[in-house]
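Let us practice reading a record.
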Amino acid sequence: MKQDKAIAFALMLIALSAVSGLALITVFIFKEGLPLILKSGAGGFFFSTDWDPKAKQFGIFSMIVGSLVVTAGAMIIGTVFGLGLAIVLTIFCPKALAAILKPLIELLAGIPSVVYGFIGVVTIVPFIRDYFGGPGLSVLATSIVLGVMVLPTVTSISIDALKSVPRSYWEGSIALGATEWQSTHMVMLKAARSGIVAAIILGMGRAVGETMAVIMVCGNTLEIPSTPLDPLRTLTSNIALEMGYATGEHREALFATAVTLFVIIMILNIAALTIARRGIMSNNR
């Protein structure tokens, strides 16, 4: 009995340490970045495109747009291929083959982001430059790289969501005369939609927070991209590129950028958890 209490206490300390670490990080980031946001005002910081630390101008609107654009492009690629893979591996693929392919896809999540960036610089960027024009370092290149990076997240969670749907739903639809695709589209996907949406939102969180691969292929220009072939700069790349030499208000502005990024990712994670819980409750009913 004493041993059980000791183990429970130790586990509680581990859980509290994780929560405490998150709380300390949150307090530190907001403490360093919030004063500059209040000083500049929401309009001067969030909705201005003028980023010139020497002139004390800290507008991150172009970087917010850049982050959202490449995230949207990445999710189009990652969702189409990730959900397609999940459907094939769950419904149409033989179980023996799916047992081999699923771990291989999940291994993509363990590849360092710098490797993805290097592959993008060596292959994707020259291909875009030669066949589509522009500098190659662009929204399109960044979206492709990020799309591949979020693929294992979307695929893995979508597979779990589809597997959570009772097999009797599929069998009942087939017995009523529906085709396999009709059963997949009208029954399986609709029953698993909350888990699939959660997978997409978690993939978005990964795409928004990615840094190294983005720096290598985005071009890092402080302009709002007007076409998929234009270069851009994201919130994460701005922090990584300038934090090494930033001082004073410049450093505070980078922390304020981190506050913005932190809030965006927290909103996405909370949305994913809420949708997943609603899906569990609806399935239990």
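A brief commentary: The mean pLDDT is 87.
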